[in-house]
Amino acid sequence: MKTLFSTIPAFAAMLIFGGSAAQAAGKACPATTFPKFLTAFAADPALQRAHTRIPLSYETIDATAQPEPRTVRKMLDAKTIRFPIMPSPVEQKKKHMTSLNKVVPGGMEVTLRAGETDEQLRFFFRQESGCWTLLRKSDDSL
Questions:
Q1: I want to staple 136 with a disulfide (CB 3.0 to 4.6 A). Which of 12, 14, 57, 101 is the partner?
Q2: Helix or strand run (H / E) with residue 39
Q3: What is the mean pLDDT of each run of 10 residues along the chain (142 residues)?
Q4: C-alpha to C-alpha distance for 142 and 127, rounded to whole angstroms
Q5: Which CATH number characterizes residue 22's domain?
Q6: ω into 35 cis (within 30 of 0)
Q7: pLDDT score of 22
Q8: Cβ-contact 69, 142 below 8 angstroms
């Protein structure tokens, strides 16, 4: 029989050594296909929290770097990540965002572009323990 105290060490180990809260808590995957998972993920900050790797790799563009813009990478811990991490379907529609999903080595990449602006966000997912996990977010906006 599992008790709260018997699951805490597994949860802590998963977060310390890399993993998502969903893996640590043994949460079920909300969908069997990536498109359906992505729809559920975008619509629910709690699902985003549960299916995001901690620490999360986060990339931005430093447009002021010389001689040319450069990518800045950092790892975000649980205290630093702000959810929702992906715009909701309502927000995507409001910003006239288009979505492109493509298979990349090791997983899936989702690119969201806002119409008429330079806003572009990329999300990298990998299938782990029977579900998808967000590993990296890139904000390529200038």
A1: 57
A2: helix 34-43
A3: 42 42 63 96 97 97 93 96 96 95 96 92 96 97 86
A4: 30
A5: 3.10.450
A6: no
A7: 47
A8: yes
